[in-house]
Amino acid sequence: MAERPLGIQGIEALYEECRTRVQDGRTADTGRGLPAIVLVGPRGSGKTTTLNWLGYLGSRRPHAYFDFGSATPRRPHEVAGRLAYGLSHRFPRQTPLVFPRLTLGLFVVAPELSLDATDPERAKKQLRQALRGPQEPNAAGDRVAAVAGLLQDLNLVRIPGVSLLASLIRQPPSMPLRVTRHTGFAWYAGPLAALDALVELNQLSKSEEPADRAAVDRRLCEAFLADLRGEYARRQRDRNCVVLLDNIDAPGGREFLDLLMELRDASGEPDPLLAVAAAANVGRVPAMFATGPAGVRVRAPEEAGHADWVRAIPDPPPNRSWRWYCVQLRGLTAGETAQLGTNIAGRLPEAPLLAHQLTGGHPWSIRQLLTASARLVGREEPETLLRAVLSSTAPSAEGADEGPLLEEEARQYLLRDLTDDQHRALVECCAAREFDAACDAGLLDRFQLHTRDSLARVVATRLWLTDPVPQDAEVRGGRGSGYLERVHPHPLRGSAVLHPWLRLLLLQELAALPDRWDAVHGKLRTWHAHHGHPLEVLYHSLALHRVDDVIEHLARRLVELSDTDIWLYELYTITAAPLRVPVVPEQSATLRLERLAADLAPRSFAEHTPLTLLVVGLWLASDPRNRLPGANPELNRTINAMLQDLAMRSVPRRIGLMHEAAKYV
Question: Which one of 2, 145, 242, 277 counts the least CB within 10 Å of its CB?
Fold first, then answer.
């Protein structure tokens, strides 16, 4: 049985809704038909696992799987042939689909079939003879090898029914000649007689001209859809057939689906084919335009539905982009992460919550962290080990004493699609709170032209940009979320930020280059000062360990402001700055706090002790590894005490600070 991914309930509902939209043998809603559903998400978000699960759900009805990323690049008509092979398998209590038009066309364009290009009559005679059947003694063995190649391309081992497939390899299915002649020949007949049209198709298949090759692909994909329509018109069925197409952003993926969508437009007829695809690069999906970094309309699983797709279609549609429907796989919730970590939760209860907080719910990374955490069960000082979990050996190197660190393995996996220069540039861009600021401030100027031109697009289309998280008590181990939104007269722009998990990994890589850390944060600080962004200036001042600057500003504002919420907004916004060494595993954050405050801001620590301890405490609490254990987060007691102390010392007395302190109890 396939593994059911967590968090895909909305995708399952969309899949079943589209799969069952059949009526009297034809697709319901004849005006629009079915969308090409594309599951999108960054690397490691579970796209392939989700496709496999959908294949399992549809395993009792015609379906086929094709991975453009692992198979040899195929032309569209070759993909259609492999999908037809998968769809034609016999399923219990289901009449198998047959493809007479496509079967005949594929036979005619087979590389081994050579017809006389100079004598049309002789060419037709050769074709008639070839259609009577193979005469060579090795033909049966060649056919078995061809079927084995089909199975390898289709990755049919993922789909239930392996014993059936083995029998098909030994005795491949054949198309009754009468069906091929009656249906196939009749379909190819038109301005030319059927044999003449087929001879011409054979000649086109031998050409290297792009236009001729495109004509062959188009005709055979037309045959594929015509066969499907014919089969559903001939026998009423309760489910549309399904093709699951992985990695359509790899070579061949878009070519096949683009042609399929073009043929749907040209025919004006609905077809009973539900295409569910997956892509890590949304820039390769021509879905409807939307504002935002990715540039296309992407729906969350909970929002997805056939009616939602139909409502968004422009009237009239300007192009075929409306036929594509992008649904983004979401990250796991804390509860779903806890389900994955049930095997270690009883012995190491902090591990699932920490994995979720560090990764923001990224599925692949959660599994890696939970696997690494499971190795720590039973050891002494589990909290110390968990704080150092990113420095442990990656799970892929099981049993090895030496191997890549988990953080290195994660970086390489998540950024595999980037060039080395793009990777180095992204390491520096991660210093900016908002990704746009990194580009605007000129951080890319020192890199190659290709990197300068492409990095922003690459990060956006691979869905590594996300909405910023509200900065308040909730992200520091306290209670409440979003309560400081829209309270400040000059808030942050709120533009897209790097995914917090990817940014954490990149910041650790940048921290290993002290000179670059200082240079990048210094450049960003200067740029923000020039453009009048005082909170961002202090954000980067804190990253540069200029704690005195931050304390001076916050002490002055505490006296000037009459609205405590505005002051709290500035406090949390500034202390979200990255810390060069966020965690010292062998030392608890509470023990580290006072020494760090005294070392980095001796003047402020002497003059504004409570405020300095509060700022450094919130700064440390930005990293969830400093908030262990989760049931009673470390640093909460110090943050609570410092807020209360400030409330008692402030003039006038700040009841809002007392209320804020209560969020850390």
Answer: 145
